[in-house]
Amino acid sequence: MTQYVAQRVAWLVFALLGVSVITFALGVLAPGDPAEVVLERRLNQPPPREQVEAQRRVMGLDRPITVQYVRWLSHAARGDLGSSWLKGLRVSEALRQRAPRTAVLALCASALSIVIGVPVGVLAATRRNRLADHVCRVGALLGASVPSYFSAYLLILLFAVRLNVVPAFGFGSPGHLVLPAVTLALGPAAVLTRLTRSAVLDVLGEDFVRTARAKGLRQHAVLLRHALRNAAAPLLTVAGLSLGHLLGGSLIVEYVFAWPGMGDLAINAIHDRDYPLIQGFVLFTGAAYVLVNFTIDVAYAWLDPRVRIGGKSWA
Q1: Residue 266: inside a domain, yes or no?
Q2: Is 286 within 8 Å of 19 (Cβ atoms)?
Q3: Which residue, among 260, 241, 120, 102, has the nearest Cα to 181 in the 3D structure?
Q4: pTM to 2 decimals?
Q5: Which residue has the higher pLDDT, 310 or 294?
Q6: Which residue range is the domain that position 109 belongs to?
Q7: Residue 45, domain member (yes or no)
Q8: I need a labelling partner for 284 at 20 to 30 A (CA). Which of 19, 63, 98, 101 fits?
Q9: Quick check: helix, strand or coil at residue 104?
Q10: For every residue of 234-278, which 3-state class applies, written as one string?
Q11: Please, are residues 264 and 227 in contact by the beta-carbon 8 Å criterion?
């Protein structure tokens, strides 16, 4: 186990460095001169060339790219992601304020996707090629195919406008969490439904399941003790990756529902061409995704001793 974790930590460091390179490249390859953008917003007019050159020296943009990257990475490692060009606030402080709201939304959506996807997948597997199976498969196909922004507007129209049972926009009460969490959960729930159905069908055909049934175990006991337990590892992997995706991929849904999380912050930063905020969002969500992936890898190895490193099992 120690060897496996050490290898995953090495890959974790490598992946985080890759995320940092991509994040830094966003600012370097972005159109326009950052110094000119900053001065133009301060002066509300095109700045003189001399001021632009002076601002470039102040921002360190006159140095080689490698020096800029090392300097930026050293600051980022200490939690200093710079300041917003438009608002002047510290990027790390803005992310610190918004991250808990996005985390709550992502965790609720992930939990909801598991609550929906796993039971529906089990139902489809136990009713294979029957009406319930067909309904579950069609529902999973729709959930995986419909874009989240389209689902969001349909849910707003039905539950907020027509039925008026939950608020459509804003933040501050548990009711505001319902629609965005459901919208985000539909896609991962569809994936979990299809994966659960396939995994349970594979396990139900194994000899040890037939032996358990021959011993007189009831259907629910066979499903809980044998089928779902042996299908837990791939389900955990997909659920964990879905959580990582939700942490960084909820920006459209947050913007639609006016949920004041990191996604709403990123959308406004993109609109304002505020590259430090964009870089901070990409770096934070990329690092979160990598860390979630690392945690799932370790949990997967703990659940399944057959995980191998270089052809040798650590078990």
Answers
A1: yes
A2: yes
A3: 102
A4: 0.76
A5: 294
A6: 100-273
A7: no
A8: 63
A9: helix
A10: HHHHHHHHHHHHHHHHCHHHHHHCCCCCHHHHHHHHHHHCCHHHH
A11: no
